[in-house]
Design a protein that fits this description.
Blueprint (H helix, E strand, L loop, with lengths): L6 H6 L17 E5 L14 H11 L2 E4 L11 E4 L2 H5 L5 E3 L5 H13 L9 H4 L13
Parallel strand pairs: 1-2
Antiparallel strand pairs: 1-3, 3-4
Helix pairs in contact: 2-4
Amino acid sequence: MSVDANPAEATSGRATAPPPAPSNTPAPCRVVVCRDCCCGSAKVPGVDHAAQTARLREAVPTRVSACLDLCEQANVIVVQPSAAGRSAGGRPVWLGLVNDPDAIEDIVAWAHAGGPGVAPLPDILDLYTVTPPRRGTAP
């Protein structure tokens, strides 16, 4: 075995990948999209729910949730703070009646700016804020 050889290669006969380099990029904020009984359904006509979810998924870490208990506010989206946002006092922001493609773009832009606790809530998104239902846990 040469001095430069990887000991893992010598014993197993296979090359091993080096450990991943540490990331200097902080974890982004995340988005939860309700897609259950009312949100994401024909009960909210004229909205391309699949395109809405796809746009969020391509831009921001996005999770699809079952009913978030705000059916009268369909479509509901929750923007959760990143670790840095939580450290700065950010809390999840609940948005309701998100039925306009421009609102999705506003959410994407805010998430890219840092989201709750990092970037101020844009005035236009303030119009969509709703009070979350009283439940044991947030999404």
